[in-house]
Amino acid sequence: MQKLWSKNFTIITIGSVVSMFGNNIANFALSLFVLDYTKSTLMFALYMILYTIPQLILPSLAGPFVDKFSRRKTIYTLDFISTGIFAFLAFLAFINHLDYLVVVCFSAILGAINSVYTVAYESFYPMLISEGNFTKAYSVSSTLECIPPFLIPVSIYIYKRTGMAPLFAINAVTFLIAAIMETKISNVKENYVKQDDEAFGFSQYKQNLIEGFKYLKEDKGLMAITFYFLITSFASSSTEIIGLPYFKESFNNGEYIFMCIYAATFIGRIAGGSLHYKLKIPSSKKFSIALLVYITVSIIGAVTYYLPFIFMLLFNFMDGILGVTSYNIRISSTQSYVPDEKKGRFNGTFSMLTMAGALVGQALSGFLGDNVSDKRLVVSIFFMINLIAVFCFIYLNKESVKKIYNRNV
Predict the structure, then answer these.
(1) pLDDT tens digits for 268-290?
(2) How far apart are CA 365 and CA 378, in angstroms?
(3) How many CB atoms lie within 10 A of CB 119?
(4) Rounded to a whole number, what is the distance in angstroms from the first to the last CA of the chain?
(5) 3-state DSSP percent of the chain in helix, strand and coil, to 5
(6) What is the pLDDT of residues 100-136, one digit of tens each?
């Protein structure tokens, strides 16, 4: 087996961690800013929705693009653009011109950038993984993604002491560092890149887009996985919208309680990611483990907010371990299963559909959060719907899903 930590894999990993540090610090504080400014769960949901809408529309358009042009250049160009945007937001915050309207407008722009970036990154990342190391590589990725949220206490402290300006400035610097590092990735064969004599007009773009949906439709296993995660995105969005407002309204210093629960999830993800890095799940057991994980996560999501604080921590820790397991099985299996020349189209279609689920979930949970006396009930109902989806999409299509999950990657 070839080594995992090549020059390119090391660069993309470190660059991702750097940008995630800044992004997590700024984003959590921005959520607090919106809640403090509006005092409304529905307005908070609107802010989240405007970030999500571009991620519903653009991934399916971005897929054909990243299957035809350089994914490496797309990634670092978007990071340079994000640097400029966060530098400008830092300036607006510094001169006290940051308000709700500004935040939601730039939220939509950043959502558009993130939607294209995600498709390009997820399609490029597997190309930097050596053969036989997919599971280990994605365990590294999922583990490192859990580290930045532990800076949330720093985020809250800076926000309450100085406001958003320093947080935006930190984010601008981290995106700049990541972009510069990504320009150093080299010797990656992007054979799908358009040649000079090839036309890539609207008709070709439309054809590639249709092919992405057709490819998904023709593979029953990929279709089942995609639609299950559409419902999972719908269910998970309820905690994004309900969680922080519920704890702020129900407890003194509720944002700190929410932070502790949030941190427990990420500690679980670190533990799970470390476990997956050292131990390899037997190929023949992946589907069975995934099915059990999907059922357990649905139950945990439905009951957690009704439990005493110590059990919330425990259940969220378990949810973190299970979440990494779900992610590693799904991402390593699908990204090794889909051919390189079709990864962009598949990832774009997958992202668009899961974002559609998230958008509907955000809008519905935001509305219900302002109109239901007990916000926890909204989360419980959403995760019961997710439990039904486990049976409808994964279990009933188990033979097709097994062909994708139960492979040695």
Answers:
(1) 888 888 787 777 788 889 999 99
(2) 7
(3) 33
(4) 12
(5) 85, 0, 15
(6) 888 888 888 888 888 788 888 888 888 888 877 887 8
Query: Distance from CA of residue 237 to its chain's centroid?
Result: 11
| Token pair for 220 | 């029953």
Q: Which two tokens stand for residue 215?
A: 């490819």
Burial class (CB in 10 A: 0-12, 13-18, 19+), 383: buried
For residue 75, which of 111, 113, 109, 18 has the smallest C-alpha distance? Answer: 113
Amino acid, res. 15: G
**What is the pTM assigned to this prediction?**
0.69
**Cα angle 320, 324, 326; round to 5:** 115
CA dist 222 and 233 (Å) reads 16
Q: Please check whether residue 152 is in contact with residue 257, taking contact to mean a CB–CB distance below 8 angstroms.
A: no
The first and second tokens of residue 140, run together, are 């590294």
| More confident position, 137 or 231 | 231
- Tokens, residue 383: 């995760």
